[in-house]
Each structure stands twice: as C-alpha cells, then as structure tokens.
Amino acid sequence: MQNQTGSTRYAEVDISAKVRAVAGEYRVSQERLGDIIGVQRGGIVRRLNGTTQWSAREIAILADHFGQPIARFYGDVA
C-alpha cells in the first residue's frame, strides 16, 4: 500500500464515492467495474476503499464507458 497524505487520501475517497454513484446509477457490480477497466474485483475493492489510487486512464475508461464527462469523477478534487 502506498503512503498517502491526508489530502491525497481524501481525493481518492471522493473519486471512489463518485465512481460508486455512477456504478449505482447503472446498476454495475464491482466485478463488472473490474472488467471495464481491466482489473480483478480485489483491485476494484481497494480502489473503492481508497487504499489504491485510481489512475487517470481508469477514470477516462469509466467516463467513456458510461458516457459521462471526466469532471463527473473529479469534480472539485482536481
């Protein structure tokens, strides 16, 4: 696990909350999220818990898949 500052940890938790919200709107499981970005379910769980950072590429893939602007996932975090 990567050592994160408080602000980095906050940003990861905030991005994860936004990913959860979009996944919930589309009724997408954690397993399916993993399929979309190419990681196993465990990797999704760590990202959603904020212990592993989301890459910009992963967020871009999710935004494209769900037809959402990237800003939806970053909002005021960026």
Your description of this structure?
With 78 residues, the protein is mainly alpha-helical. The protein has helices at residues 6-25, 30-37, 41-49, 56-66, 71-74. It is globular. The chain starts with 5 loop residues before the first helix and ends with a helix.
Mean pLDDT: 87
Q: Tell how many strands the DSSP assignment holds.
A: 0
Contiguous low-pLDDT stretches (5 residues minimum) are: none
Element-by-element helix/strand order: HHHHH
Structural class, by secondary structure, is mainly alpha
Q: Helix amount, in percent?
A: 55-70%
DSSP helix count? Answer: 5
User: What portion of residues belong to β-strands?
Assistant: under 5%
Gap between N and C termini: 22 Å
Rounded to an integer in angstroms, the radius of gyration calculated over CA atoms is: 12 Å
Which outline best applies? globular
The largest β sheet comes out as: none
In short:
The chain has 78 residues and is mostly helical. The protein has helices spanning 6-25, 30-37, 41-49, 56-66, 71-74.
